[in-house]
Specification:
The protein is α/β, with parallel strands linked by helices. It has one domain: Rossmann fold (3-Layer(aba) Sandwich). Helix content is about 45%, strand content about 15%. It contains seven helices and seven strands. It has a seven-stranded parallel sheet, with helices on both faces. Strand 1, helix 1 and strand 2 form a beta-alpha-beta unit. It is globular and about 45 Å long.
Length: about 240
Amino acid sequence: MISQPLIGKAALITGGARRIGRAIALELAKAGADVTITYRNSRTEAEETLQLINQLDRQAVALECDVRSESSVRSAVANSINFHGHLDVLVNNAAIFESAPLDQLSVEQWDAVFETNTRGPFLAAREALHHLRASHGRIINIGSLGGLRPWAGHAHYCASKAALHMLTRAMAKAFAPDVVVNCVAPGWIDFGEEEAQTAADRFAAKTPMQRNGTANDVSQAVVFFASSSDFITGQIMAIDGGLGL
């Protein structure tokens, strides 16, 4: 029998239409949760993800949402509550990853990354907090190994994820004892993209576990935080096969 520790729970995953977000949505559904996913530009992928969740006999809805916008986030949280009736798990996954030389970064590039990667999780958590307090729920932020280790070609991304890690810890203190807050920080995740194969091979060779991470590695960590003891809070869990050691 498959363990379903999240039966009766409702989860909201920002950026849940594809890649890591899709894997998280499906893993939460396999664990028994009904699911809301948000998307900004990935409507077709969102519909595909809904079909996959429905095949798992879970209730699911996809909502268009721009996590940079206060009103858009407020609307998405309200519509998720209207659909499920409650909210137990918020996964702040929506993010921008960009490469750029630090000495050539524009203010617009810097702000765009922080608007999505740091302000977005703040807005989603703030809007969901009342409902999560009522359910003694969980917030799980998706950080990055780049928030723990400096990557010279991704300074604005690294800084935004480091800020999200600190925001996780601040939320854990501010929202306790009603809401548990943790963070999953993936290292290199291999999506099987041909254009990234050279880099993937290089990272796998540098990783103690001699392979790259998968979206499933990340999603299993999310389910752990969604269903584990409420005495585990304020933690940043690196999912990197030892790459950051």
